[in-house]
User: Fold this.
Amino acid sequence: MRIWLVLLPLLALQLGSGLFLLWDILGSMLGLASSPIAWVYYELAQIGAVIGLILGMVVSATLMVRSIQRQRQAEESLRLASGAFMDVLQERFADWELTPAEKDVALFCIKGLSTADIAALRNTSEGTVKAQTNAIYRKAGVSGRPQLLSLFIDELMSESLVDPSTPVVAQIEEAS
Assistant:
């Protein structure tokens, strides 16, 4: 919110500067009478308008650089989180002693693919995929896909990120 306290006056200054210079140029081109103020003040007004535009450009460039840096940080965090998720998946698959075929099916299940889609991707029958998913659920100690996915979500939500004594909404607001 504080940034708007700086940006709004700066935008107003830029708009005023641009309009002043535009009026000056159009007045010169169309032969309109110039202002009755002394030329010294008129020149100072022109210099002020140019400084206002330059200041706006500098602030805009600074904000753009900060925005690009934040975007890169967010992308890096997402990349790290994605890598962490894959590490957790591989670790759990190893703990459950899944076969390579079961690992593939489990990954497709977690990605949300249907049994028919998994069968088509793996060139097997839907019955084979159903048998493999049942073996995965048994080894993982869950009864279905939602519980399987929940295991990984719970794993990624470490105690350092979630305080059970604080309501979830308050934690989300605190994080942002």
